[in-house]
Amino acid sequence: MSASVLFDSPGPKGRRTILLVNVVGVAVIALLLYLVISGLAAKGQMSPQKWASLFTSNAWLNFFLPGLASTLQAAAVSIVLSIAFGLVFGLGRLSEHKAWNWIAAVVVEFFRAVPVLLMMVFFNIFFARSGIVPGSESPFWAVVVALTLYNGSVVAELVRAGVHNLPKGQREAGIAIGLTRGQSLRLIEVPQALVAMLPALIGQFVVILKDSALGYIIGYTELLFYSRTFGAANANTLQALLLAAAIFITINYTLTKVAEWVARRLGSRGPRRSKPGEPAVVGLPAGLPGLPDTDADAGQRR
């Protein structure tokens, strides 16, 4: 039996049992949804008047779109800084220098252990009292710094795990053509690890986008803040929050599909197969020091 098979395929009786369980599960979920919607309708929460104000120009131009823009702005800045942070400290975790390796390990493990909300509260107070940034911008930068430190630490671990999961032959090939350990890491191993971990990296972007909603607690005017403000003014807080949730779900679902598309594209790529009689194509980056020139390259220079 193949080692990749985790369990035997179900027989006719097993398939009937699985189908019965699925039908019962769908029925239970449908019943729960019916009870929830019926309860909301009994309290007047499903009336058209509660929903109509959500689809006006005032709601979108003054509340939902500005809130969404603030959310995306904080998430975009945090994503860029998290990648930079993760690359620097991920390389630190892989460094042969013990001091730098130890510092990177302490920083990464510390910020992975601290809750994001606690860091947001701390940096909001710190920025507001220190005057490093204008008082009105302290919530924004508190959200960005907190998301960067936490998610950057996760990215650093992704980089480290990605390099460790590469075949040892990658490093040996780099050293064989005259690269140092650091050059092999930067030019061969980390680029391949980044490609391999790209779906997981995009999945981490979803986490950053969702965690940006925590900025509401420290007064950052993002989508959740504007949704609650609009709902309180129009007596439809539940409906406004449901709309905000639908926006978050749509964006996160789109990012998830992008991650799946990237994974399929990366899985479909591979080294070009050599025809019979042709030399094998070696996937080493061009221009590496010590890499011998091919006859075609030498002819072009002549």
Measured as a percent range, the helix fraction is over 70%
Instruction: Compute the CA-based radius of gyration.
Output: 26 Å
Mean pLDDT: 84
If helices are DSSP runs of H or I spanning 4 or more residues, what is the number of helices?
Answer: 12
Class based on secondary structure composition and strand pairing: mainly alpha
Total E-strand runs: 0
Characterise this structure.
With 302 residues, this protein is mainly α. The chain contains twelve helices and no strands. The longest helix is centred in the first third of the chain and has 38 residues, at 57-94. The radius of gyration is 26 Å and the shape is flat. The chain starts with 11 loop residues before the first helix and ends with a helix.
What secondary-structure arrangement, pairings included, does this model have?
Layout: H1 12-42, H2 48-52, H3 57-94, H4 98-113, H5 116-130, H6 138-164, H7 168-176, H8 181-196, H9 198-211, H10 223-234, H11 237-268, H12 295-301
Helix pairs in contact: 3-4, 3-6, 3-10, 4-6, 5-6, 6-8, 6-9, 7-8, 9-11, 10-11
Membrane topology: Multi-pass membrane protein
InterPro entries: AA_ABC_transptr_permease_3TM (IPR010065), ArtM/GltK/GlnP/TcyL/YhdX-like (IPR043429), MetI-like (IPR000515), MetI-like_sf (IPR035906)
Keywords: Cell membrane, Membrane, Transmembrane, Transmembrane helix, Transport
Question: Would you summarize the structure shown here?
Answer:
With 302 residues, the chain is an all-alpha fold. It has twelve helices and no strands.
